[in-house]
Amino acid sequence: MTRTATIPVPVSLLTTLVLAVVTQDPSLLTQYLPAQPTRAHATAAAPCTPGSGRSVADSAGFTLCLPAHWARDEERRPAYPDVAVVTYREPGAHGITVKVFEVCEPTLRDSAERAERQRRRTLDGYRTLARTSAADRVTTTTGYGVAGHGVRGVDVRFRTAGGASYAVVVTGPEDRWPAQRELSAAVVSGFRVTGG
User: Fold this and answer.
1) What is the spatial distance between Cα 12 and Cα 151, in angstroms, rounded to a whole number?
2) Do residues 129 and 195 touch, judged by C-beta distance below 8 A?
3) CATH pick for 42-193 out of 3.40.50.11030, 2.60.40.10, 3.40.1000.10, 3.30.365.10
4) What letters, b where the CB count within 10 A reaches 16 and e where it falls short, cover 63-76?
5) 70 near 89, Cβ under 8 Å?
6) 34-88 per-position pLDDT tens digit
7) Do 83 and 57 meet the contact criterion of CB atoms below 8 Å apart?
8) Pseudo-torsion of CA 182, 183, 185, 191, nearest 10°?
């Protein structure tokens, strides 16, 4: 009689494997792989501080800090078909969302104002809660409703050290505030252009 040995597999590994297949994101499995040696320049490219998440090198040409296991999507805007809009979503039905894209308008202020006009046309109950401006950054705190749920967000339009302009828009349930603001600060501070 032949005996087949069974190896117990942690349920979390099975769940993660299913998520990796469904979302087509093999990076979800990295926590179960042996640690790979890192190069000094890779660590220096996008420092993630303790608690800010893991460094993610995105194929759209940038590196940023994000919590582990977020799903990634990419789309193109009709007005700017050459610009990728990368979206990271926290797992769960009402999670936090991070959108990252290159700014195409002539100035950061123009970009922020265009975004605000668009949101006023398309988002129920949209309101600007606060805005701060500097030469290299425009930050707008927003609120609106989606399907009867309050949403609060932070939109940061900023210039990188190399002179490129990007937007990081973090939104999530109003009752999660200030998690959106804290995540936005971590993403923007760890953001580096890599050239894709």
Assistant:
1) 30
2) no
3) 3.40.1000.10
4) bbbbbebbbbeeee
5) yes
6) 333 222 222 233 457 656 678 999 999 999 999 988 999 999 988 888 999 999 9
7) no
8) 170
